[in-house]
Amino acid sequence: MIQIAPSILSADFSRLGEQVRMVEDAGAEVLHIDVMDGHFVPNLTFGPALVKSLRAHSKMRFDVHLMVEEPELFIADFAAAGADHITFHLETSLHVHRVIQLIKEQGMTVGIALNPATPLDGLKYILEDLDMVLLMTVNPGFGGQKFIPNVIPKIQVLHRHLEHLQSDCQIQVDGGINLETASAAVKAGAHILVAGAAIFAQPDPKLAVEKLRQAAGSMKSE
Ligand code: DX5
Ligand code: ZN
Predict the structure, then answer these.
(1) What local confidence, expressed as pLDDT, does residue 221 receive?
(2) Does ligand 1 come within 6 angstroms of the Cβ of 65?
(3) Of 35, 111, 128, 134, which sits most exposed with the smallest number of CB within 10 A?
(4) What's the confidence (pLDDT) of residue 222?
(5) Closest Cα to atom 10, ligand 1: which residue?
(6) Which residues of the chain, if any, have pLDDT below 50?
């Protein structure tokens, strides 16, 4: 089943609680929370305090996408704040295996993100430890960018490999996902669609979630 993960990066922060409730009511399973440090990516966003305030208002799975250097510094704080899942970038750590174990020890599921130009090779010796691989379909840092079509074959290769391994590891795509690109990503093998602008920059975010699900050609998973 395809899951929709609205990214609050494009939400109206002045009424964030209301916007989160709206996408939850629309059936979104996952809330994608983009954490940026101004070093790994040229932008700044939010930290554990925001996760803590939202936690009381939502039952969705909180999927924290860390775009930060030294991700190990923040894991315990996000766990305490109520995160269910942490994804960090392969490019940000020299001790990837150790950080994966830290996240699991804190009782969360774990994903590794790869920038568009980063090959799949780095996943080889860690894949069986992962719940998710996030294939970036834009360069991380900003919402509202254009989908990079060259990532499609990368999704296909990873999907085939996971099938071959009979792995439950999920493929998430993030960046430039809209009604057109969603179906291409799903066809290639994506399981979780992150969408920011295509949901929160729309006049009716609730309707946008429903349309995206339709475009992905799937019913809501139970
Ligand atoms: C980009 C973030 C994305 C972003 C996607 O660095 O990781 O999650 O919110 O935004 P859209 O869907 O607008 O491209
Ligand atoms: Zn993201």
Answers:
(1) 38
(2) yes
(3) 128
(4) 35
(5) 143
(6) 219-222
Q: Where are the beta strands (DSSP E) in the chain?
A: 3-6, 30-36, 61-67, 85-89, 109-114, 132-136, 170-174, 192-195
Specify whether the CB–CB gap between 189 and 155 falls below 8 A: yes
| Separation CA 36–CA 90 (nearest Å) | 15
**86 contacts 66 by C-beta, under 8 angstroms:** yes
Please give the structure tokens belonging to residue 176.
Answer: 């430039």
Residues in Cβ contact with 120 at an 8 Å cutoff, skipping those fewer than 6 apart: 114, 154, 157, 158, 161
pLDDT, residue 218, reads 56
Question: Ligand 1 pocket test: which of 10, 67, 181 has the largest number of ligand atoms within 8 Å of its C-beta?
Answer: 10
Burial class of residue 16, CB neighbours in 10 A (0-12, 13-18, 19+) = middle
DSSP 8-state code for residue 33 = E
pLDDT for the residue numbered 122: 97
CB 70 within 8 A of CB 96: no
Q: Is the CB of 33 under 6 A from ligand 1?
A: no
Two structure tokens written together for 183: 């179906």
Question: How far, CA to CA in Å, does 65 sit from each of 50, 68, 112, 172?
Answer: 13, 9, 9, 11
Q: Encode pLDDT of 158-182 as tens digits.
A: 999 999 999 999 999 999 999 999 9
- The pocket of ion ligand 2, defined by CB under 5 A, consists of 34, 65, 174
